[in-house]
Write a structure and sequence with these properties.
The chain has about 450 residues and is of the alpha/beta class. The protein has three domains: about 10-155, 3-Layer(aba) Sandwich (Alpha-D-Glucose-1,6-Bisphosphate, Chain A, domain 3), CATH 3.40.120; about 160-365, Alpha-D-Glucose-1,6-Bisphosphate, subunit A, domain 3 (Alpha-D-Glucose-1,6-Bisphosphate, Chain A, domain 3), CATH 3.40.120; about 375-450, TATA-Binding Protein. It is built from 14 helices and 18 strands. The protein has helices spanning about 25-35, 55-70, 85-90, 125-135, 160-165, 195-200, 225-235, 265-275, 295-300, 315-325, 345-360, 365, 390-405, 430-450, and strands at about 10-15, 45-50, 75-80, 95-100, 110-115, 150-155, 180-185, 205-210, 240-245, 250-255, 260, 285-290, 305-310, 325-330, 335, 375-380, 410-415, 420-430. The chain has a six-stranded mixed β-sheet with strand order 1-5-4-2-3-6, sandwiched between helices.
């Protein structure tokens, strides 16, 4: 495959006002994508754009708008709205393209551009490469005539439409009345929609992370800093805590005792509940190579399979579509429920957890530990040059570790897709052995990276 110049593993991302997250690159994205998604007929073509609460959104959004309108595409602006909402609205409004301006769980200094096709799914690698090819063309090429320029309008009802979609995922027979729910919106894209949806479903809502100022998105809050949620759950005596990230496509749960429930445990809870009602499709769950061995064993005990993919929700979604699975995700809290959404949706996943609390009448602490996680050890080793994974000593250390686990665990060593890091993970039943194996491999990598 050709080397990508702009797009990474999840759209274009980087520090705001530094290449590639500049106004010029955003303008070129609008120009290039707009040209590709015009089908050539006489109808008006439409792109919808959402964003999170970063200050730099005010720079990137108008640059994208200028690009799209200059090639004849109409634009609808949603303002702050979760990534999964933009994906849904792209499809429901029959738009030709959807755009989300966000750097997800990163701090405010970063930003990014994610693109969705008319079906609501993230664009393929091949389509991103086509966009890149057009981005390097001259800015004067393929422009619309004066009468064919696109029109722009703000769509104030976008949040209300998403709230109704979210509420409809909770069965009508269930109500959240009597539940005290603490929601941490990370000062991000869901700061209005998430508390409103929970309140309208009957919950008593305690909200934090709902005062964005352009700089505080994900700052010591949200799913990447769960300690803030834990503190709030204890302070408000909540029945459950829900932490979203900056664009609300991932979620972590906190039980009433202040214990964190990660994505693997959430998937286990939903899988067993759906399987019991014959609503789980594909015969199991899709997760990445980073999901805990305990999840795999939990599913196997219930005659369900765990299909593993490379890291990244795009890979999870591709495997789900291929095998007709309706549940997949990552330990980090990206949970994809394809009956409802084409990408990870933290709020909808949280509602499935709340549904099980209501159905069972059990506290979150009785539901959040579906399986005992296998001891797992992670270590990242930074390197300055070379390809440590091709070193003979590193390969020997990895082979030795796998042999010592003797089929009762896993070793995963991979290069990061975004940083000069080698990520080392081992898991198994012997916690002491797992730790030693990771240290041995890390020492070999460090030696090879000198």
């Amino acid at each position: 495959m050709n080397k990508r110049a702009y797009f990474g593993t999840d759209g274009i991302r980087g520090q705001a006002n530094r290449y590639p997250m500049t106004a010029e690159v955003a303008l070129r994205v609008g120009l290039a994508a707009g040209k590709l998604f015009r089908t050539g007929d006489d109808r008006r073509h439409l792109v919808v754009i959402g964003k999170d609460t970063r200050l730099s959104g005010y720079m990137i959004e108008p640059a994208l708008v200028a690009g799209f309108t200059s090639v004849g595409m109409d634009v609808r602006l949603f303002g702050p709205l979760p990534t999964p909402a933009v994906a849904m609205m792209t499809r429901s409004m029959r738009a030709d393209l959807g755009v989300m301006i966000s750097a997800s769980h990163n701090n405010f200094a970063d930003n990014g551009i994610k693109l969705f096709g008319p079906d609501g799914y993230k664009l393929s690698d091949a389509m991103e490469l086509k966009i890149e090819a057009h981005m390097d063309e001259g800015l004067q090429e393929g422009l619309a005539g004066p009468k064919q320029l696109g029109r722009v309008a703000r769509m104030d009802e976008a949040q209300a439409r998403y709230i109704e979609i979210v509420k409809a995922t909770l069965p009508r027979s269930l109500s959240l009345a009597g539940l005290r729910v603490v929601i941490d919106c990370a000062h991000g894209a869901a700061y209005r929609v998430a508390p409103t949806a929970l309140y309208e479903l009957g919950a008593e809502v305690m909200e934090i992370g709902v005062t964005p100022n352009g700089y505080n998105i994900n700052e010591e809050c949200g799913s990447t800093h769960p300690a803030t949620l834990v503190k709030a759950v204890r302070e408000y005596r909540g029945d459950i805590g829900i932490a979203l990230d900056g664009d609300a496509d991932r979620v972590l749960i906190c039980d009433e005792k202040g214990r964190i429930v990660d994505g693997d445990q959430i998937m286990a809870l939903i899988a067993q509940a759906w399987a019991a009602r014959d609503s789980l499709t594909g015969g199991g769950v899709v997760a990445t190579v980073m999901s805990n061995l305990g999840l795999e064993r939990f599913l196997a005990e219930r005659n369900l399979k765990l299909e593993r993919t490379a890291v990244g929700d795009r890979h999870v979604m591709a495997k789900m579509r291929e095998g007709k699975f309706n549940l997949g995700g990552e330990a980090s809290g990206h949970i994809i429920l394809s009956d409802y959404s084409t990408t990870g949706d933290g709020l909808i996943a949280a509602l499935q957890v709340l549904a099980e609390m209501v159905r069972s009448g059990k506290p979150m602490s009785a539901l959040g530990r579906q399986f005992e996680p296998a001891p797992q050890k992670l270590e990242n080793v930074r390197f300055a040059h070379g390809k440590p994974l091709e070193n003979a000593s590193v390969k020997t250390a990895i082979a030795s570790a796998e042999k010592r686990l003797n089929g009762c665990g896993r070793v995963l060593v991979r290069a990061s897709g975004t940083e000069p890091l080698i990520r080392i993970m081992a898991e198994g039943d012997d916690e002491k052995l797992v730790g030693q194996l990771v240290r041995d491999i890390a020492a070999a990598v460090k030696s090879a990276a000198r």
